[in-house]
Amino acid sequence: MAYTRLTGVTHFEPENVHDSLVLFTGADSVTRLIALDGTVVKDWPHAGVPPRVIDPALNGGRLGDLGVQLSESGDGRGGIYANGTVGQLDWSGERVWEWGREAPGGAARQNHDWQLLPNGNRLLLVTVPRVVAQLGVTAEVGDQGLYEVAPDGAIVWQWLAGDHLDEFGFSETGRQALRETAARDPEDPWGYLEMNSATPLGPNRWHDADPDSVFHPDNIIVSFRKANVVAVIEKASGAIVWRLGPYFEAEAGAQHQRINVHKVPRPVDQISGQHNPHLIPEGLPGAGNILVFDNQGGAGYPPAALGIYAGSRVLEIDPTTRQIVWQYTAEDSGRPSWTFFSSFVSNAQRLPNGNTLITEGMQGRLFQVTPQGDVVWEYHSPYEGYGVAGEPEVREPRVPGVDRLTLTPLVYRAQAVPFAWVPEQARAREGATT
Question: Is the full-model pTM beyond 0.85?
Fold first, then answer.
């Protein structure tokens, strides 16, 4: 008997949503821009990890330009090694900029995140195959880091995680677990830390109040999924100057207890396998706080204790007090905690009306919630593909715990796109506003 599942728009309250377009790459490796009624406004035959419609304010006023991955590396290693070139397309799909062949090793190996910077350069999260001395492993591993790439393709700044392991706060037990993991599988296609996001802090109230604080707009907030670490890198020195994790003095020790605690503010108790921490931008409700998708998936050196009642959550954290000031779990929508769960991928984005767009990536579910936790829009991606995270069907997967290529609706990350960022023909629908 064939398995069927809900697809498309399954809930929509026009009077309560923030109206926008939504961009995502489906598991079929096609990137689509949809309206909230589920209509596909535009598609491109490229995957993005993540795809992103570029803010015209950073792009010389150009509308509808898109960042995606453009070609594969061809080395067959998959995972964070996979792509050869990345770049920028215009609305019609023509290549405006492409980079990778001039990169070290002849491939961009960009993965998990990228940003167009105000100075016109691009910040790329990349993988660099090399021996990391601090791991005590003689084999080459997939070290992850950052390149800042100028429009002409030159790398003008770089940062590699393996040079800063003593700044992560690992206990001796944690260091040993990290070394053992790296030694056991140096060819792990997702890396020993799995760095999964990197974005400049941008203008923020903390820096406005204290220009000498660690929250300089040029500093970069990053996430290491396997280490349960969110950190701020000082751009000028490369040092980690602020960190959340890897260890916490939890008020409640088991996962189901953490998920079911809703009193705020309260100290952060435990993040595990988190994705896409970023400062909520100026002009949005909660500006200056960190918004992060806390997967509560298995992670940590040593592994964080997780309970039986699995559930993910979205956390808004004051970075100066390290307290949770808002959160979303399934219970906020009147459902059991395990009905909202993605142990990997996923993200959250604050919207102008105070709602939050959430990508429950493992399920291919995109939804919008109010500050009170009411779901006012829900969409299940109908686009399935074989593999994991957009890996092509022909490639043998090398993902821990995955033996065979399987059908998945997985969505890595979605983006709410303002109508004003795209050409006028893409805005011309009932309810669209500029």
Answer: yes
